[in-house]
User: What shape does this take?
Amino acid sequence: MEGPTPVSALIHAATMVTAGVFMLARMSPLFELSSSALTFVTFIGATTAFFAATVGLVQNDIKRVIAYSTCSQLGYMFVALGVGAYGPAIFHLFTHAFFKALLFLGAGSVIHAVSDEQDMRRMGGLRKHIPKTYWMMVIGTLALTGFPFTAGYYSKDAIIEAAFVGHNSFALYGWGMTVIAAALTSFYSWRLIFMTFHGKPRASADVMHHIHESPLVMLVPLFVLAAGALFAGIVFEGAFIGEGYGEFWHAAIYTGAENHVLHDMHEISFWIAFLPTICMAVGFVTAYMFYIARPSLAKETAQRNRGLYQFLLNKWYFDELYDFLFVRPAQWLGRFLWKTGDGRVIDGLGPDGVSARVIDVTGRVVRLQSGYLYHYAFAMLIGVAALVTWMMLGGAN
Assistant: This one.
């Protein structure tokens, strides 16, 4: 998150972060042979979608909100892979690249406008100052939350429907988590819009004085991505998950003979299909109540639920848990191997030990070389006496 927003847009939205989804889809011939592997993928994906969405609810850095949103959307993609809906997974990967890159670059435009500030608590009231950026961010938010007929509506809803008709033991869990995450996604996405662009300005007078719309070199990519966020879903739905599925994919992904998810997902009831849209609306209304209708409600809720707020703000304490389980034991092991293994055993018995013993021996030998003539004469007499004694004893025998 320390890099510039174009880097974030490329990594988070379109390439590195999503490469695992592409890999698992390409490995579909192997995964179709193991229901246990698919079940595990479903569980991890659903848990990730819910976990990252809850963390995104309370983040204050504009880029971090979008980054945790990416993590949550990755969970959606893995749920689709886990239930055997490889086409919808890649479809969401494809549409996600448009609206998430749009949001990241839009966030960059906002940061540029407010003198490199990223904390949404120091923004507000920017809608009239940077209207083009505002509307581009709104389009990205509509697509992310699954507003009808936007790109996210087609791809994300397809994943939720696929999870509902999935057959592994965690498919229903995946459906429930993704539905809940849809409501949470709508809430934190509109929270970002409302905190950044609506309400009273919370930035300093100097920052507000210098706010200006971004130049065309920054806005043109937003316009292009906005077109994709609006129309990529309706244009490509047939090829990715519809009637043109076979002709589009050919052998790129493999669906087993017993895998009927793509067929079954088109047979679900209207209310199941409409549920994600209801969740989107609930999230929007809740965010509006918290940040527009009654702005003090968010702070009051956080104070009343201090433990839960801190739990989410600290990302479920995963960093602390990771530090306790992996970092500290690794540091202890490294220190033990350094001090005891390397210092005492290897160096102590090896080079340092040998050199120390040589120094001890030579130190004692050096004492024999006193430099006094009478010492050497005395040593010679002792030698002659010893030699004569040995010869006499030998002659007697």
Q: What stands out?
A: The chain has 19 helices and no strands. The CA atoms of residues 158 and 305 lie 35 Å apart. The radius of gyration is 35 Å. The chain has a mean pLDDT of 87.
